[in-house]
UniProtKB/TrEMBL annotation:
<protein>
    <recommendedName>
        <fullName>DivIVA domain-containing protein</fullName>
    </recommendedName>
</protein>
<feature type="compositionally biased region" description="Low complexity">
    <location>
        <begin position="30"/>
        <end position="49"/>
    </location>
</feature>
<feature type="region of interest" description="Disordered">
    <location>
        <begin position="1"/>
        <end position="54"/>
    </location>
</feature>
<dbReference type="InterPro" id="IPR019933">
    <property type="entry name" value="DivIVA_domain"/>
</dbReference>
<dbReference type="InterPro" id="IPR019932">
    <property type="entry name" value="CHP03543"/>
</dbReference>
<feature type="compositionally biased region" description="Polar residues">
    <location>
        <begin position="1"/>
        <end position="16"/>
    </location>
</feature>
Length: 238
């Protein structure tokens, strides 16, 4: 997937309807099922971020491209050293961009789990900074309005009947996420929201779904887009 360089954060613009989104995230497919074909790349470079070290897979295995990872994390680090008021001075790097970022794979690259864990930490930090910057510029009332709109959008989909929460792939033989698996996660999210319990974003970030076809599956892109917004709301409510 290509990186989003629009420079906008969730708090900078009105929440879009889920049906209009076309967002990819790190794969939520079950291991060994529907895994994307790795892309060949040149020899990877060593990590150069200050104090940043990630383990590598063996040479015959595929991992995240170290050059891409290091470049992106350097850009995020540069944003985090700015003040909250200067947050928008670094376009293209915000919590949403971190959440949506995926990397090419190369032989002997970085182990994915430590990199993904670091991305989750950075997303949390950026979300906090974006909330502070938004409230400083627009006031707490506008922030509450933003959260209410986002919550209503998410609950509107969560309240739909099982098997009808998301679109099905346009082509009958196209693979998608198991309807049963996605609906189970949606039910858990709904229970948390209705009980006012704090929801751990890892419940959504680490979700894994089996692959299915035809009437038994949901379109992956739409599910991913929705779950991204769920994480956005969880972080905003902290």
């Amino acid at each position: 997937m290509s990186e989003n360089t629009s420079g906008s954060s969730p708090a900078d613009q009105p929440t879009r309807t889920i049906d209009g989104l076309d967002t990819h995230t790190r794969s939520r497919s079950a291991p060994g099922q529907h895994a994307p074909a790795p892309q060949t790349a040149g020899q990877a470079t060593a990590a150069h971020g200050a104090g940043r070290k990630f383990s590598r897979v063996t040479e015959e295995r595929w991992g995240y491209d170290p050059a891409e990872v290091d470049d992106f994390l350097d850009r995020v680090d540069a944003v985090l050293v700015t003040t909250a008021g200067d947050l928008r001075s670094a376009p293209g790097v915000g919590s949403r961009q971190v959440r949506e970022r995926v990397f090419d794979r190369v032989q002997g690259g970085y182990e994915s789990a430590p990199v993904d864990a670091r991305l989750d930490e950075l997303e949390d930090q950026l979300a906090d900074r974006e909330r502070e910057a938004f409230i400083h510029e627009h006031g707490p009332e506008r922030w509450e309005e933003h959260l209410e709109l986002l919550g209503q959008t998410l609950l509107g989909r969560l309240n739909r009947p099982h098997g009808e929460r998301f679109r099905q792939p346009s082509q009958r033989k196209q693979l998608g996420y198991s309807v049963a698996d996605v609906d189970v996660l949606c039910d858990r999210i709904t229970e948390h929201f209705r009980s006012d319990e704090d929801l751990d974003p890892s419940l959504v970030r680490t979700a894994v779904f089996r692959q299915a076809q035809a009437q038994r599956c949901y379109e992956e892109q739409q599910v991913d887009a929705f779950l991204d917004r769920v994480v956005e709301l969880i972080l905003a409510l902290r």
